[in-house]
Model the fold of this input.
Amino acid sequence: MAQLYFYYSAMNAGKSTTLLQSAHNYRERGMRALLYAPAIDARGGSHVIHSRIGLTAEATAFDAGHDFFDAVRRAQEGGPVHCVLIDESQFLTPLQVLQLTRVCDELGVPVLCYGIRTDFRGEPFEGSKYLLAWADNIVEIKTICRSGKKATMNARLDDRGNRVTEGAQIDIGHHYEALSRKEFRLHEVSPVARRG
Done:
Protein backbone atom coordinates (compact mmCIF):
# COMPACT_ATOMS: atom_id res chain seq x y z
CA MET A 1 0.00 0.00 0.00
CA ALA A 2 1.37 3.42 -0.99
CA GLN A 3 1.97 5.86 1.84
CA LEU A 4 2.45 9.59 2.38
CA TYR A 5 5.75 10.47 4.08
CA PHE A 6 6.74 13.78 5.62
CA TYR A 7 10.47 14.24 6.20
CA TYR A 8 10.99 17.42 8.19
CA SER A 9 13.83 19.25 9.86
CA ALA A 10 15.21 22.65 10.65
CA MET A 11 17.02 24.47 7.84
CA ASN A 12 20.27 23.09 6.44
CA ALA A 13 19.79 19.54 7.70
CA GLY A 14 20.07 17.91 4.27
CA LYS A 15 16.43 17.51 3.25
CA SER A 16 17.09 18.23 -0.44
CA THR A 17 20.16 15.99 -0.38
CA THR A 18 18.07 13.14 1.04
CA LEU A 19 15.36 13.74 -1.58
CA LEU A 20 17.92 13.69 -4.39
CA GLN A 21 19.43 10.46 -3.03
CA SER A 22 15.96 8.88 -3.06
CA ALA A 23 15.42 10.04 -6.65
CA HIS A 24 18.79 8.55 -7.63
CA ASN A 25 17.86 5.23 -6.00
CA TYR A 26 14.62 5.03 -8.01
CA ARG A 27 16.38 5.92 -11.29
CA GLU A 28 19.18 3.43 -10.60
CA ARG A 29 16.58 0.67 -10.38
CA GLY A 30 14.90 1.73 -13.62
CA MET A 31 11.93 3.25 -11.82
CA ARG A 32 10.22 6.55 -12.53
CA ALA A 33 10.04 9.23 -9.87
CA LEU A 34 8.31 12.58 -10.38
CA LEU A 35 10.17 15.47 -8.74
CA TYR A 36 8.46 18.72 -7.72
CA ALA A 37 9.76 22.01 -6.36
CA PRO A 38 7.82 25.20 -5.53
CA ALA A 39 7.69 27.78 -8.31
CA ILE A 40 8.21 30.52 -5.69
CA ASP A 41 11.72 29.21 -4.91
CA ALA A 42 13.95 29.66 -7.98
CA ARG A 43 17.25 30.03 -6.09
CA GLY A 44 18.80 26.94 -7.70
CA GLY A 45 17.50 27.90 -11.11
CA SER A 46 14.01 27.49 -12.47
CA HIS A 47 12.61 23.99 -12.00
CA VAL A 48 15.70 22.68 -10.18
CA ILE A 49 16.10 21.01 -6.80
CA HIS A 50 19.47 22.06 -5.41
CA SER A 51 21.23 20.78 -2.31
CA ARG A 52 23.85 22.68 -0.32
CA ILE A 53 26.45 20.04 -1.20
CA GLY A 54 26.03 20.65 -4.92
CA LEU A 55 23.62 17.92 -6.02
CA THR A 56 20.88 19.02 -8.44
CA ALA A 57 18.00 17.55 -10.41
CA GLU A 58 15.37 18.96 -12.71
CA ALA A 59 11.89 19.18 -11.23
CA THR A 60 8.42 20.30 -12.16
CA ALA A 61 7.51 23.61 -10.56
CA PHE A 62 4.28 23.78 -8.60
CA ASP A 63 2.27 26.76 -7.42
CA ALA A 64 -0.89 27.02 -5.32
CA GLY A 65 -3.06 26.09 -8.32
CA HIS A 66 -1.21 22.88 -9.21
CA ASP A 67 -3.38 19.74 -8.96
CA PHE A 68 -1.10 16.88 -7.90
CA PHE A 69 -3.75 14.18 -8.23
CA ASP A 70 -4.54 15.16 -11.81
CA ALA A 71 -0.85 15.58 -12.71
CA VAL A 72 0.16 12.15 -11.41
CA ARG A 73 -2.87 10.49 -13.01
CA ARG A 74 -1.91 12.05 -16.37
CA ALA A 75 1.73 11.04 -15.89
CA GLN A 76 0.63 7.43 -15.37
CA GLU A 77 -0.80 7.44 -18.89
CA GLY A 78 2.81 7.55 -20.14
CA GLY A 79 3.91 4.60 -18.01
CA PRO A 80 4.18 3.61 -14.36
CA VAL A 81 5.00 6.26 -11.77
CA HIS A 82 6.81 4.65 -8.86
CA CYS A 83 7.17 7.62 -6.54
CA VAL A 84 6.45 11.35 -6.14
CA LEU A 85 9.13 13.48 -4.41
CA ILE A 86 8.33 17.04 -3.27
CA ASP A 87 10.94 19.53 -2.08
CA GLU A 88 10.02 22.48 0.18
CA SER A 89 6.67 20.86 0.94
CA GLN A 90 5.85 23.50 3.56
CA PHE A 91 4.64 25.57 0.59
CA LEU A 92 1.88 23.08 -0.28
CA THR A 93 -1.69 24.22 0.26
CA PRO A 94 -4.02 22.14 2.48
CA LEU A 95 -5.90 21.10 -0.69
CA GLN A 96 -2.66 19.91 -2.28
CA VAL A 97 -1.84 17.79 0.77
CA LEU A 98 -5.31 16.27 0.43
CA GLN A 99 -4.59 15.60 -3.27
CA LEU A 100 -1.38 13.83 -2.25
CA THR A 101 -3.32 11.53 0.09
CA ARG A 102 -5.41 10.57 -2.95
CA VAL A 103 -2.26 9.96 -5.02
CA CYS A 104 -1.35 7.34 -2.41
CA ASP A 105 -4.79 5.93 -1.68
CA GLU A 106 -6.37 5.93 -5.15
CA LEU A 107 -3.43 5.85 -7.57
CA GLY A 108 -1.19 3.63 -5.45
CA VAL A 109 1.88 5.88 -5.71
CA PRO A 110 4.00 6.65 -2.63
CA VAL A 111 4.63 10.35 -1.95
CA LEU A 112 7.71 11.63 -0.11
CA CYS A 113 7.51 15.25 1.06
CA TYR A 114 10.52 17.14 2.43
CA GLY A 115 10.17 20.44 4.27
CA ILE A 116 10.34 22.49 7.43
CA ARG A 117 7.59 22.68 10.04
CA THR A 118 7.80 26.28 11.17
CA ASP A 119 8.81 29.72 10.00
CA PHE A 120 11.22 32.27 11.51
CA ARG A 121 8.70 33.11 14.26
CA GLY A 122 7.95 29.50 15.16
CA GLU A 123 4.60 29.58 13.34
CA PRO A 124 3.59 26.43 11.41
CA PHE A 125 3.41 26.48 7.63
CA GLU A 126 0.04 25.39 6.24
CA GLY A 127 1.50 22.59 4.15
CA SER A 128 3.49 21.24 7.08
CA LYS A 129 0.51 21.45 9.43
CA TYR A 130 -1.56 19.19 7.18
CA LEU A 131 1.32 16.85 6.43
CA LEU A 132 1.83 16.40 10.17
CA ALA A 133 -1.90 15.67 10.52
CA TRP A 134 -2.35 13.34 7.53
CA ALA A 135 0.98 11.67 6.66
CA ASP A 136 1.30 7.94 7.26
CA ASN A 137 4.95 8.36 8.25
CA ILE A 138 6.58 11.40 9.87
CA VAL A 139 10.38 11.34 9.99
CA GLU A 140 12.67 13.95 11.51
CA ILE A 141 15.98 14.63 9.76
CA LYS A 142 18.17 15.90 12.56
CA THR A 143 20.66 18.75 12.59
CA ILE A 144 22.41 20.64 15.35
CA CYS A 145 22.35 24.13 16.80
CA ARG A 146 25.47 26.19 17.48
CA SER A 147 24.93 25.20 21.13
CA GLY A 148 25.43 21.54 20.23
CA LYS A 149 21.80 20.70 21.01
CA LYS A 150 19.34 19.40 18.42
CA ALA A 151 18.08 22.24 16.20
CA THR A 152 14.32 22.41 15.70
CA MET A 153 13.73 26.09 14.84
CA ASN A 154 14.66 28.40 11.94
CA ALA A 155 15.94 31.92 12.66
CA ARG A 156 15.85 34.37 9.72
CA LEU A 157 18.91 36.56 9.24
CA ASP A 158 19.39 39.77 7.25
CA ASP A 159 22.33 40.49 4.91
CA ARG A 160 24.55 41.40 7.87
CA GLY A 161 23.69 38.28 9.87
CA ASN A 162 21.31 40.04 12.25
CA ARG A 163 18.17 38.22 13.41
CA VAL A 164 14.90 39.25 11.72
CA THR A 165 11.66 38.77 13.68
CA GLU A 166 9.14 40.66 11.53
CA GLY A 167 8.00 40.21 7.94
CA ALA A 168 6.10 37.92 5.61
CA GLN A 169 6.05 34.21 6.38
CA ILE A 170 7.28 33.39 2.88
CA ASP A 171 10.18 35.54 1.75
CA ILE A 172 12.66 33.62 -0.39
CA GLY A 173 16.31 34.58 -0.42
CA HIS A 174 17.05 35.17 3.25
CA HIS A 175 19.66 33.26 5.16
CA TYR A 176 18.56 31.08 8.03
CA GLU A 177 20.20 29.57 11.06
CA ALA A 178 18.98 26.32 12.59
CA LEU A 179 18.66 26.73 16.37
CA SER A 180 17.45 24.79 19.38
CA ARG A 181 14.21 26.14 20.82
CA LYS A 182 16.15 27.57 23.79
CA GLU A 183 18.61 29.46 21.54
CA PHE A 184 15.74 30.53 19.28
CA ARG A 185 14.02 32.26 22.25
CA LEU A 186 10.56 31.30 21.05
CA HIS A 187 8.82 33.26 23.80
CA GLU A 188 10.37 36.49 22.43
CA VAL A 189 9.39 36.10 18.76
CA SER A 190 6.21 34.02 18.66
CA PRO A 191 2.98 35.83 17.78
CA VAL A 192 1.33 33.55 20.35
CA ALA A 193 3.21 35.40 23.11
CA ARG A 194 1.93 38.74 21.81
CA ARG A 195 -1.66 37.49 21.68
CA GLY A 196 -1.27 35.91 25.15
The first helix runs from residue 15 to 28. The chain has one domain: 4-142. The two ends are 44 Å apart (CA to CA). DSSP finds seven helices and eleven strands in the chain.
